[in-house]
Specification:
The chain has 190 residues and is mainly alpha-helical. The chain has two domains: 58 residues, Potassium Channel Kv1.1, Chain A, CATH 3.30.710; 117 residues, no CATH class. Helix content is 64%, strand content 7%. A three-stranded mixed beta sheet has the order 2-1-3. The longest helix is centred in the middle third of the chain and has 24 residues. The protein is elongated.
């Protein structure tokens, strides 16, 4: 068993746990040596799924927003839907991509709150990879609004990445009236 597999197993089983964190009614049994905390903590505002990704990153150095087989299936489905319905127009595929983008946004926002810079960078990278692989303006609307509603993050955060992605895909963006309206609402994003 590799080191990462051992770490993932420790997280999954909670074996030798000396600390617990409560999120959305779920208890995460973790290890102070990894988390750097004492006692018990509660994060009532956070989603358990998002927090699970944060823990996975702390234990293994990476996170997956879905189990690997589902992520592969999602990508395959998006490609097939684009071929079947024309580039980037299928509403089911668009909704699935929007949900996947939101998972990365939620990880980014929690990483920002917890001040885990490496996780912020990783979530930005995963967000960008998904958008670059298959840009759908309609899938971008909710993530765009969520990021811009969570305060400034400087010139190197997810806001800046979203603006860069919009610029790179500007021919698609200007055709999507809802995304243009959303962007106009955030003209000064400081």
């Amino acid at each position: 068993m590799s080191y990462i597999e051992q770490q993932r197993d420790l997280l999954r089983t909670g074996e030798f746990s000396d600390f617990s964190i409560h999120v959305e009614g779920r208890e995460f049994n973790v290890h102070r040596i990894i988390e750097g905390l004492e006692g018990t903590a509660s994060l009532p505002e956070e989603k358990a799924e998002t927090f699970e990704r944060v823990l996975e990153f702390l234990y293994t150095g990476d996170y997956y927003s879905q189990p690997l087989e589902e992520e592969t299936d999602l990508h395959a489905m998006l490609v097939l839907e684009d071929i079947r319905f024309g580039a980037n127009t299928d509403p089911v595929a668009t909704e699935k991509q929007s949900q996947e983008l939101m998972r990365h946004v939620n990880v980014y926002i929690l990483a920002k709150y917890l001040q885990i810079d490496a996780l912020k960078r990783r979530s930005i990278s995963k967000f960008s990879e998904l958008v670059t692989r298959r840009f759908r303006p309609a899938a971008f609307i909710e993530p765009f609004a969520q990021v811009f509603n969570h305060g400034s993050d400087g010139g190197d955060g997810l806001r800046a990445e979203i603006l860069d992605l919009c610029a790179k895909h500007s021919l698609y963006v200007v055709r999507d009236e809802q995304l243009v309206r959303e962007a106009r609402g955030y003209q000064s994003y400081g």
